[in-house]
Amino acid sequence: MKDQPGNKKPEKIENFQSLFENRHTPMLLIDPVDGKIVDANPAACIFYGYNRVKLRSLKITDINILPQGEALQVFEKIRTHQESQFLFQHRLASGGIRDVEAYVGRIQMGKRSINYAIIHDVTEKLKDKAALQKAHHELEQRVIERTAELKEANKQLKEEIEKRIRIEESLQKTRNMLQTVFDGITDPLIMLDADMAVKILNDAALNYYGKPESDVIVGKCCFKALKGETMPCKGCEIPSAVLSGEARIFERKGVMDSNRIEQVAIYPVKIIEDERAGAIIRISDITETKLVQRQLIQSEKLASLGLLISGIAHEINNPGNFITLNIPVMRDYMDAVMPIVNDYVKDHQDFELFGMSYGEFHEDIFRLLDNIEYGASRITSIVSDLTEFARMEDTKKQAWVDIKSIIEKSIGICESQIKKNIKYLNISIQEDLTKIFTNSKAIEQVLINLLVNAAQAADKEDSRVKLDVSMDKTSQNNLIIEVEDNGCGMDEKTRNRLFDPFFTTKSPAEGTGLGLYISNNLIEALGGRIEVESEPGKRSMFRVILPNVERK
Question: Structure pTM?
Answer without folding.
Answer: 0.35
